DNA sequence: CATATATTTAGATTATCATCTAAATATCAC
DNA sequence: GTGATATTTAGATGATAATCTAAATATATG
């Protein structure tokens, strides 16, 4: 009946609407921080903070490209999250 | 690219590990507050607070039975949440 | 109706979180 | 290497949220 730290970080990550919007945007294609930023009103520092939380939850990956950093949705972890979700709330098995 | 208030309350509701545990417990069968409480360490007031948040998100339903209140998992809303999940993070459609 | 039981509500406290500005770091182009 | 651009880090602030104790409400029972 306990939950790994990893699960915890995923649920925390998707709790915020701005971060869900970031994931939603990245669903279409990978993007630099500046491109992501163009969709929002808040500061670069705030965006960096959100990206860091998503990264820690492994929901996104980053790679360097010159001065830019390109963020990508980590689809396998998103799918894992869906499974966990199903396991906690729907399936007859206990949360493992 | 916006989200209803209802979605917001659902994501907030499942962000807390105690509330996810409550949902996980209710998956097996409906329960009185006292029964739910036996699974946790925190005070009754705290449990009541969590149940209220789950109720506002419509993830659980309550009915009276004498002095007790019986909480039930609202399966249709849990399923709805799974769909929203898929829509935001996986499917090619935008979040509606 | 008085007392016991079940649960919620009120109000306070502490911790966590989203956001900001300013400064730091890294890379590129000249 | 100097200046410009991209992004992150540090530190502060205000808002939200989790929890507690004490008090209130509702129901049941003798």
TrEMBL record, chains A, B:
Family matches, as InterPro entries:
ArsR-like_HTH (IPR011991), HTH_ArsR_DNA-bd_dom (IPR001845), HTH_MetalResp_TranReg (IPR051081), WH-like_DNA-bd_sf (IPR036388), WH_DNA-bd_sf (IPR036390)
Q: Which Pfam families match?
A: HTH_5
Q: What is the top-level taxon of the source organism?
A: Bacteria
Q: Which residue range or ranges hold the HTH arsR-type domain?
A: 1-93
Gene Ontology molecular function terms on file: DNA binding; DNA-binding transcription factor activity
Keywords, alphabetical: DNA-binding, Transcription, Transcription regulation
Q: Output the NCBIfam families linked to this UniProt entry.
A: HTH_metalloreg
Question: What is the protein name given in its UniProt record?
Answer: ArsR family transcriptional regulator
Organismal lineage? Bacteria, Pseudomonadati, Pseudomonadota, Gammaproteobacteria, Lysobacterales
């Amino acid at each position: 009946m306990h939950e790994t730290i990893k699960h915890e970080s995923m649920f925390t990550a998707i709790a915020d609407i701005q971060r869900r919007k970031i994931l939603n945007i990245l669903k279409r294609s990978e993007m630099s921080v500046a491109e992501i930023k163009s969709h929002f009103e808040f500061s670069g520092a705030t965006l960096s903070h959100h990206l860091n939380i998503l990264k820690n939850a492994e929901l996104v990956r980053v790679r360097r490209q010159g001065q830019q950093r390109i963020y990508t949705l980590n689809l396998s972890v998103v799918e894992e999250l869906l499974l966990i979700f199903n396991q906690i709330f729907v399936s007859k098995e206990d949360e493992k």
